[in-house]
Amino acid sequence: MKVFTKEMFVRGPVLAAALLGTTAWAATTSFTDTYNGNGFAGGTACNQSFNINGQEPAAAGTFPVFVYMVGTTEQGNNNGAASAAVAGMANRGYVAGSVSYNSTNFGNCTQIGAKASCVFNPNSATSAIGKLCSRAKADCSKGVVVGGFSQGAVMATLAKNFDGRVQAAWGMGDGDNYSVAGILSFNLAACMDNGNHTLTSDRLRIVNGQNDDFMGQNPNTV
């Protein structure tokens, strides 16, 4: 069994090679937008503006949508892994966007779920998915796929709780128990264990390093 470390994906080269190795579309164009996300004051309101950085095929037509979310303390507009994921998926025929959010803090199922709700509320024109699906080249009836790293991976796993068009999720550093320096701990079993999220396990791919810093640093806890 080949072991993948978190750093292999986050630092860029492996992820970029995997996503850009096969180009289905000759060219892509970049775009930016904003959406109303869950604010730094907490609660459940979607009252803070966050960035969307995206790419889409330059070819004519309409395409499914891909959404990527970065990890805790990261932002989507200056992250190599996020840029590689967006570019790779746009090259494969998706309207693809990296979504920033209130990543300063981690949180429990309720707190992270509130962030995911603001990203994936299909009934809000100002949610991230609302903004992406309203693009002229986007057709979310063709499907939405999501990905993310760490906290962003948790949000990706929960995406279908809010938007039934989500067809699959890919998470790196994705789990149900996290700890930070042995001081803070977060048990997400209530929303992350199999059967506790709407997305079925056969539509979820998780890649974790066996010594993940935030999930116990050994294969048993990871």
Please sum up the structure shown.
The chain is an alpha/beta fold and 222 residues long.
Please describe what this structure looks like:
This protein has 222 residues and is of the alpha/beta class. Helices cover 27% and strands 26% of the residues. It contains 7 helices and 9 strands. The chain has helices at residues 6-10, 13-20, 80-91, 109-120, 128-133, 151-162, 189-192, and strands spanning 28-38, 46-57, 65-69, 95-99, 144-149, 166-172, 177-180, 184-187, 204-207. The strands form 2 sheets. Strands 1-2-4-3-5-6-9 form a 7-stranded mixed sheet, sandwiched between helices. Strand 1 (28-38) and strand 2 (46-57) form a beta hairpin. Helix 4 (109-120) crosses helix 6. The radius of gyration is 16 Å and the shape is globular. Mean pLDDT is 85; it is low at 1-23.
Notable characteristics:
single chain, 222 residues, alpha/beta, seven-stranded mixed beta sheet, 7 helices, disordered N terminus
- One letter per element, helices H and strands E, the order comes to HHEEEHEHHEHEEEHE
Q: Give me the side-by-side strand order of the main sheet.
A: 1-2-4-3-5-6-9
- The end-to-end span amounts to 15 Å
Fraction of residues in helix:
25-40%
Roughly what is the average pLDDT, rounded to an integer? 85
Radius of gyration: 16 Å
Number of strands: 9
